[in-house]
Amino acid sequence: NGSLENDIEHVLIPTDELNGRLDEIAREIDRDYADKDVLVVGVLKGAIMVVADLTRRMTIPVTMDWMAVSSYGSGTKSSGVVRILKDLDSDLHGRHVLVIEDIIDSGLTLSWLVANLRSRGPESVEIATMLRKPDAAKVDVDVRYVGFDIPNEFVVGYGLDYDEKYRNLPYVGTLKAEVYSGR
Ligand code: PRP
Ligand code: MN
Ligand code: MG
Q: Taking the model in full, what pTM does it have?
């Protein structure tokens, strides 16, 4: 027990690389939304770190809302069954919505979510994700801002969990095999 780091096999994206990409994406968003009011929709729980770190780098005014959906439960595979655990408080009519996610894996969560949000009458819906796994895609999702494309491995940290743990690691890494097998 002790440090979370003991469970990490290797660091895939260190903190300084995450920060560098966040700076770049924030500048892009500032440019793209210069004359628009943005409603940032953070997808709980995984996206909390990206929402916090990305929005504080943006200089345009934003409002924030949160949606909690879950497609993984406590395992490592997407079930494809998306449940709304908490819905938005905001009315989306006429709004420019920017959905922020930590990772697009199969794409099932976001393709479902974007269709759901589009049905609520927004002016636009775009997606920003910190991570994307091209080799795991089961559906195509049109993503405007991507931090990093990564290999099809299970990763944790920077908001991403395994069994609700490791979200507070400040970098993205893979877990040692013995962690899954229960030590
Ligand atoms: C994870 C992740 C994404 C989604 C991606 O969330 O944070 O939201 O899965 O998977 P997909 O592209 O295969 O659908 P999870 O359902 O584990 O909930 P959490 O954010 O609370 O951990
Ligand atoms: Mn999530
Ligand atoms: Mg999860």
A: 0.94
